[in-house]
Amino acid sequence: MSSLIGDRLEEIRQKIPTNVRLVAVTKTVSVERIRAAYAAGIRDFGENRVNEAISKQEQLQDLSDISWHFIGHLQTNKAKKALQHFDWIHSLDSLKLARRLNALAAELPNKPKVCLQVKILSDPNKYGWEVRDLLADLPELDRCSNLDIQGLMTILPLGLSESETLATFKSTAELAEKIASQNWPNLKMNQLSMGMSGDYLAAIAAGATMIRLGRIIFGERS
Q: With the C-alpha atoms ordered 51, 215, 21, 188, is the resulting torsion angle positive or negative?
């Protein structure tokens, strides 16, 4: 198992620039396989569920240099736990959640790093802002001064062609540039969290700084 995961990671690393952060997505992945990925050099791990992540973190306390990334839909009643257990929240997907995180973060010593989840293409099966709604909410998001808003995150709808996939990722990058050009004091647009196992090369071509890979590292989920 360890050698297979290591071989897969080596193959992936040969395809991605060194400045792109590879987040290994470990939803339903066992602690043993997480340790195998760690042994192969991975330090960034992404989880979709708060309670599942906490259980794994308790078993991996000896690996103190892991950065944990929350990448799933975050319910407001889990916001406090998420801030306590994750270094990054990629999936800040509503103004309501931003207000909740901002209020909770006032009590923290460091600002939590977050990305704003946006839907470039309308998709009822995904969370996140539609572009026009995100642009309308920027003034209030900028006032969330207890959050370190680092950039945008997106998940594409299913069924796009290769050209549509690339175009949508490019549109996400262009949206980040548009927001950056408005010079909001508290809205950094340094990070683009986009690209998963089936489309990460297109995401990188469009400017992704973080990619979220699960299946291509760990195999199909049971």
A: negative
Contacts of 43 (CB under 8 A, 6+ apart): 65, 66, 67
CA atoms of 172 and 196, how far apart (whole Å): 15
Q: Which secondary structure element, helix H or strand E, spans residue 85, and what is its range?
A: helix 79-85
CA neighbor of 130 nearest in space, from 146, 140, 115, 119: 119
d(C-alpha 219, C-alpha 222), whole Å: 9
Domain 2-218, CATH homologous superfamily name and number: Alanine racemase (3.20.20.10)
- What residue ranges do the domains of the chain occupy? 2-218
Distance CA(80)–CA(217), nearest Å, equals: 30
pLDDT in tens, 76-112: 999 999 999 999 999 999 999 999 999 999 999 999 9
Structure tokens of 105? Answer: 């973060």
The pLDDT tens digits for 150-196 are 999 999 999 999 999 999 999 999 999 999 999 999 999 999 999 99
Whole-angstrom distance, CA of residue 166 vs CA of residue 172? 10
- For 164, the 3-state DSSP assignment is helix
